[in-house]
């Protein structure tokens, strides 16, 4: 959609260093298909090394505090670095992804990021409408979606869900908080 509107848009994503291979595959498929220069933001090496030295590689399973630390270093700090250079950003966030996103709107002031503009053009799209668009336009998608992963994050923190289960229940499944967010869109978490 964005390529059709303006091919000069910039496209960015995050590589936490712990993503599944299928996510790298779809990143490359999108680059090739649309001929875009995908800007991939990585975590700060010193921050990751210090965290792993002190807490180990699988720290996130040990406590919510450790999980938030890891998400902070691998996701939140890199995106903050990018958003700190921008006046606004456009996301694929949708209200029906999770309870915490029910109040998301198309146009928002991103209070989490220096009040820049945040635009969520798909905010009221349902799962079915999304898949209708993907199929009609042959959009590359993450193959884990075919394997029962409706919400995909880092490999060690994501698992498949049963049909009918909440889409986000496969994320950080060992935690009991039903309002789970990694910190990228914390403005909706009450
Ligand atoms: S999802 Fe898991 S591995 Fe990825 S940044 Fe968060 S805690 Fe770390």
From TrEMBL:
A Gene Ontology biological process term: sulfate assimilation, phosphoadenylyl sulfate reduction by phosphoadenylyl-sulfate reductase (thioredoxin)
Going by the record, the broad EC class of this enzyme is oxidoreductase
Could you name the domain of life of the organism this protein comes from?
Eukaryota
Catalytic activity reads: [thioredoxin]-disulfide + sulfite + AMP + 2 H(+) = adenosine 5'-phosphosulfate + [thioredoxin]-dithiol
Task: Please name the GO terms that the record assigns under molecular function.
Answer: adenylyl-sulfate reductase (thioredoxin) activity; iron-sulfur cluster binding; metal ion binding; phosphoadenylyl-sulfate reductase (thioredoxin) activity
Pfam families assigned: PAPS_reduct
Domain Phosphoadenosine phosphosulphate reductase span(s) in chain numbering: 1-160
List its EC numbers: 1.8.4.10
Identify the cofactor(s). [4Fe-4S] cluster
**Keywords, sorted A to Z:** Cytoplasm, Iron, Iron-sulfur, Metal-binding, Oxidoreductase
Q: Which InterPro entries match?
A: APS_reductase, PAPS/APS_Rdtase, PAPS_reduct_dom, Rossmann-like_a/b/a_fold
Please verify whether the record's keywords include Metal-binding: yes
Q: Entry's PANTHER family?
A: 5'-ADENYLYLSULFATE REDUCTASE 1, CHLOROPLASTIC, 5'-ADENYLYLSULFATE REDUCTASE 3, CHLOROPLASTIC
User: Which protein are we looking at?
Assistant: Adenosine 5'-phosphosulfate reductase
Upper lineage ranks?
Answer: Eukaryota, Metazoa, Porifera, Demospongiae, Heteroscleromorpha
